[in-house]
Amino acid sequence: AIAAPAGQKWEAAAAALAAEAGVPALVPDAVTAAGGVEIMWLPLLKRTALASDPVAWQSALAPMPNEQPGGFPVFTDRARKLAVLHSMGTGTAARLGDRYDLWLETLFEEATRWSVVHGSPAERHALAANGDNGANGGITVVDFAESCWAPVAWEASGLVAAGIATRNEATALFGLTKAEMEAAVTLRSAGAAIMSASVHPSAGLRAA
């Protein structure tokens, strides 16, 4: 994997890349030392009714580049999950890590297409800018902290995890196979179990 810059600088760069590709992404005018890009963006935005529409999300994310840009990070979620597992340092963590890597390998084997992905499609990241209610321009995508080069199924499974689309809807919308969607959804579940175990170890033990 390629190391990515941290914080706002990286998020702004990823948003700019998406905007250049035709994705309706809001790019901040400047990068500051303040923590969290939302500090700059949210005063300019409001919620849109299309935030829970899987078709609107697919239309917004479809223009993402399908060729890996130079210096762009590769599947950053594993590094985040490894950091959490390392902080736990238990047998439960090892089992959860093995489960995660099993499904990561399955996803990579099954993946039919790779692309630049937003990484965390969710209603809170689909907003309308400059007073637009979303009816004309669809959704404006924000918060590119988890953007990376990854299987397209990873993006689609994010809509499933967020409750925006069913598994069948996301599979059809993104033109995926059932096997790769299964792998992506289960990988996200394994990642969720890691995060849960870091806060509630007994829950993670049951998940393992």
Placed side by side, the strands forming the largest sheet appear as: 1-3-4
Give the percentage of residues in beta strands.
5-15%
Would you tell me the overall average pLDDT?
Answer: 82
Q: Which series of helices and strands comes N to C?
A: HHEHHHEEEEHHHH
Shape: globular
Question: Low-confidence segments, ≥5 residues, pLDDT <50?
Answer: 1-5, 34-43
Question: What is the overall number of helices?
Answer: 9
The helicity comes to: 40-55%
Radius of gyration: 17 Å
Give the N-terminus to C-terminus distance in angstroms: 26 Å
Count of beta strands:
5
| Biggest sheet architecture | 3 strands, antiparallel
**Structural class, judged by helices and strands?**
mainly alpha
Short structural description:
The protein is mostly helical. It has helices at residues 7-20, 38-41, 54-61, 77-88, 91-110, 152-161, 167-173, 178-199, 201-207; strands at residues 45-47, 114-117, 126-129, 140-141, 148-151.
Overview of the molecule:
There is one protein chain. With 208 residues, the chain is mostly helical. It is built from 9 helices and 5 strands; from the N terminus they run ααβαααββββαααα. The strands form 2 sheets. Strands 1-3-4 form a 3-stranded antiparallel beta sheet, with no helix packed on it. Strands 2-5 form a two-stranded antiparallel ribbon. The longest helix has 22 residues. It starts with 6 loop residues before the first helix and ends with a helix. The N terminus is likely disordered.
